[in-house]
Amino acid sequence: MTTKPQGGKSTTEASECLDHDVLILGSGAAGLSLALRLPAHLRAAIVTKRDLTEGNTLYAQGGISAVLHETDSIASHIEDTLNAGAGLCDPGVVQVVVERGPDNVRWLLEQGVQFTRDKQAHGSLAYHLTREGGHSHRRVVHAADATGREVEMTLAAMVRARPNVEIFENHIAIDLITAAKLGAAENRCLGAYVLDRAGQRVKTCRARFVVLATGGASKVYLFTSNPDVSTGDGIAIGWRAGCGVANMEFMQFHPTCLYHPQAKSFLITEALRGEGARLLLPDGSRFMPRFDERAELAPRDIVARAIDHEMKRLGAECVYLDISHRPRELIQEHFPTIYTRCLGFGIDITRQPIPVVPAAHYTCGGVLCDINAQTDVPGLYAIGETAYTGLHGANRMASNSLLECLVFAELAAAHIQEMAPRIPAPPATAPWDESRVTDSDEEVVVAHNWDELRRFMWDYVGIVRSNKRLERAKRRVDLLRYEIREYYSSFRVTNDLLELRNLVEVADLIIRSAQHRRESRGLHYNIDFPKRDDAVQRSATVLIPDNYSPRVD
Ligand SMILES: Cc1cc2nc3c(=O)[nH]c(=O)nc-3n(C[C@H](O)[C@H](O)[C@H](O)COP(=O)(O)OP(=O)(O)OC[C@H]3O[C@@H](n4cnc5c(N)ncnc54)[C@H](O)[C@@H]3O)c2cc1C
User: Fold this and answer.
1) Which residue's alpha carbon is nearest to atom 37 within ligand 1?
2) Is 218 in the pocket of ligand 1 (CB under 6 A)?
3) C-alpha angle 329/333/338, rounded to 5°?
4) Confidence grade of residue 10 (pLDDT, cut at 50, 70, 90)
5) DSSP 384-407
6) What per-residue confidence (pLDDT) applies to 9?
7) Is the CB of 272 under 6 A from ligand 1?
8) Which one of 190, 279, 428, 512 is most buried, counting C-beta atoms within 10 A?
9) What would the 3-class secondary structure string for 138-205 be?
């Protein structure tokens, strides 16, 4: 194998080899913003599992939080975020992210993102601000109810026009190449092995800097608002490479996904409740005031648990969200996507309530990183939903996640730019070895284990947990890990096998983190420890892999 100049490409019989300065795994708001923030002299590659725009970002509805109105303040946004995080946010990180918010929204406007304008203009601002659960002010800028689509499409178009960024669609990262794996005394990330899904060939992608921006892991649950790509790949990949992982017990369940046999993962945004929608039981009675004085505007975890409780108590298949008492024009103007989509299923939301259920929505934990997005492995960064930065603590406040993607992409890009002059091109690395594997003759194992995993995670490690349920889940996940490891070492890799391998890894991390936390806090609720324990448990749950070694800067 020969070393090629950056941006170069060489092919051996075994594996194609690509060289770049920066390898970005994932193309959501985090990965795309990072690519756009890099200076033109750094050659970057974006590797992404499906089309460039497919990922959680595309489906984000509500918006992006930032202090943009004169009656709002940085202190108030910080306080709301800390309150939602239930004592586990890193206050320094919260401050940096909130302070960088307004500039990052302006940066999006400069890229061409069109946010909804305010006809009555609150104060001096030309953009409409909405309010979501946990926020004490209107501070969420949005593009009607399809903010993520507007952001993703705009950034993707900008990235496609960048001559220094090469895009590899339909490519899935398998694992990282590290100096430690090659036997070097000093560890560093040197690149990644990547499967070209169309050609079924594994490429060796070398880079001076690698960024995990692969999104969340909510596909580990049976019901989720996330698209199929959200299989926790970056978290599992980072963990296997030696990165610490934090707060994986804090999975956020969105209270309101459309409940309809033909609707796959369609979320009904929280902004509906912000505009006055009420949650109703099948008999038409309102129930949220019984659970929290903020009623429908209580944070997500409280609303999701209340719905879960009422559905289990009544044996109901769903509850209902009703906004039909609000003016028809307002509903159609602010929620055109939801209005049209529901109408397609025969539900006119201006006249009747929407059937809804909770679903896994957001991964608060992830790969441990510092304020520059650096992980424990030198040269490896983690940004967006894949990362644990300390912003969300035990519960993410609505619309803070897109903000986190933007801010940490900015911080990581600045750090990479600063470090670049000092970091040489990676040395020659071993190509992917397929000499001892064959094509699978038992694909059924993958399909079966995939279903089993998602079902027991939903039943035993879902919105309400118990010690016994977690033990049951742990026994099952151990068995699945054993089976998948055996299967992985015998057969050629496929997309489904790689995703399942990652999901099982992430499920194990969630269960172990949940077992470690012997209290209930934020999104983690265990009936055997129903109270919050500030005396003993007021810190993040950090898991460290066997191959961990502290980063030396
Ligand atoms: C329905 C919905 C509504 C939401 N609404 C809001 C909202 O209003 N406001 C808000 O702030 N947040 C919202 N969120 C959360 C927010 O959208 C996400 O947290 C955010 O978009 C994550 O961005 P990301 O770039 O980290 O990941 P994503 O946008 O999920 O992108 C991940 C990328 O990684 C790629 N990828 C994954 N694995 C691999 C691999 N192994 N190899 C190569 N590529 C890989 C994927 O294909 C994808 O391109 C919402 C989420 C959902 C699902």
Assistant:
1) 214
2) no
3) 110
4) low
5) GGGEE-SSSTTSPPTTHHHHHHHH
6) 56
7) no
8) 190
9) CCEECCCCCHHHHHHHHHHHHHHCCCCEEEECCEEEEEEEECCCCCCCCCCEEEEEEEECCCCEEEEE
Report whether residue 491 contacts ligand 1, using a CB cutoff of 6 Å: no
CA of 105 to the centre of ligand 1 (A): 18
Ligand 1 centroid from CA 231, angstroms: 11
Measured by CA distance, the residue closest to atom 31 of ligand 1 is 28
**How far lies 437's CA from each of 487, 491, 500, 507, 514, in Å?**
10, 5, 18, 26, 36
**Per-residue CA distances from 407 to 26, 48, 232, 318, 391 (Å):** 16, 21, 21, 37, 11
DSSP, residue by residue, 298-360: S-HHHHHHHHHHHHHHHT-S-EEEE-TTS-HHHHHHH-HHHHHHHHHTT--TTTSPEEEEEEE
Containing 229, the helix (H) or strand (E) segment is: none
239 lines ligand 1 (CB under 6 A): no
Closest Cα to atom 33, ligand 1: which residue? 26
- pLDDT tens-digit map of 185-237: 889 999 999 999 998 899 999 999 999 999 999 999 988 999 999 999 999 99
The number of the ligand 1 atom at minimal distance from the alpha carbon of 147 is 8
Atom 27 of ligand 1: nearest residue by CA position? 215
pLDDT given for residue 122 in this prediction: 53
Counting from 1 in the atom list of ligand 1, the atom nearest the Cα of 26 is 34
Predicted confidence band of residue 7 (pLDDT cuts 50, 70, 90):
low
Residue closest to 517 by CA, chosen among 393, 373, 389:
393
- A 10 A CB-CB count for 423 gives 15
Cα 372 to ligand 1 centroid, rounded to whole Å:
20
Query: Does ligand 1 come within 6 angstroms of the Cβ of 384?
Result: yes
Q: Write out the catalytic residue numbers.
A: 300
Give per-residue pLDDT as tens, 167-199.
Answer: 999 999 999 999 999 888 889 999 999 999 998
Q: What is the pLDDT of residues 518-534, one digit of tens each?
A: 999 999 999 999 999 99
CA 431 to ligand 1 center in whole angstroms: 30
CA 314–ligand 1 middle distance (angstroms)? 34
Q: Which residue has the tokens 């320094």?
A: 92
Residues in CB range of 147: below 8 A, 6 or more apart: 60, 61, 62, 63, 64, 115, 141, 402
Q: What mean pLDDT comes out for the span 468-483?
A: 97
The residues with which 388 forms a beta bridge, in sequence order, are 368
Nearest to 438 by CA among 387, 494, 491, 496: 491
